[in-house]
Amino acid sequence: MHAARQGVTMIDTAEYYQNYPAIAIALRERPDLTVITKSYAWDREGALASVSRARHEMGRRFIDAMLMHEQEGELTVRGHWDALTTYRELKAAGEIGAVGLSTHRVAGVRAAVKFGMDAVCAIINVDGIGLTDGSRSDMERAMTEAHDAGLFVVGMKILGGGHLIARRNDAIKYILELDFLDAIAIGMASEAEIDYNVSIFQGRVPNADAARISGETARILMIEEGCIGCGRCAERCGQGAIIMESNHARAIPERCVRCGYCAAACPQVCIKIV
Ligand code: SF4
Ligand code: SF4
Fold first, then answer.
1. Which residues form the pocket of ligand 1, taking CB atoms under 6 Å from any ligand atom?
2. In this structure, which topology does domain 2-187 adopt according to CATH?
3. What is the pLDDT of residues 246-255, one digit of tens each?
4. Strand ranges (DSSP E) for the chain?
């Protein structure tokens, strides 16, 4: 709610995040907020259930954009074709505004263009952190092509999952100069961080307190006691940020973008992002 009051106009969420009820509270006060959500559904039944859940739990009849979550490229899109077709039908029926995908990969952006989608949400940041199949300039080119093809292009992970917090101003300056971005999604964990980021985005100087607190929000991934060495986290991580050593998971911090996918996959609940 604080973000909406400070001038944030879009919420980027996902079924996986399980935060629709909290968003519903903000939408009651600010129904004009644009809501982008994502689903891992691959078939018609799953896609219908995802849209129904989003509408019901967020208390909103219309979903601005429904994205296929974490798509890698053409092959994964083809594997989710029934879901894509269903979203397009719902768009034609006026229940969804735009259909697209989210991705950590250049190939994902290119697939969104190739298959005529309306929107794409992809990783972009000054150091190219989190890109798994190309460089920052490769992603800039792919996003430019998407923008030129008429897609609504959203940049995410602009602070590289926390790696760029110490260089936040440079990272945001880089993003604000990208003319192919239609929207920017940035994860924020406190009111101070919201205040700080909104100030920068609006061209104002953040107050000293917000700057101090915001600088303390760097997060790390921890693997606590209790690991049974099942390897599910390493399999789930598309960044190669977890390896198995001596039947135990070990994080490689410099590769981690703090997406949290591994934590949800751990049957022992021993992965934390703190
Ligand atoms: S949070 Fe987990 S899944 Fe995400 S990049 Fe880091 S190690 Fe990989
Ligand atoms: S998923 Fe959890 S229990 Fe399994 S290897 Fe990873 S940290 Fe260990």
1. 221, 236-237, 239, 241-242, 251, 256-262
2. TIM Barrel (3.20.20)
3. 899 999 888 8
4. 10-12, 34-39, 63-68, 96-103, 119-123, 152-156, 183-184, 221-223, 242-245, 248-251, 271-273
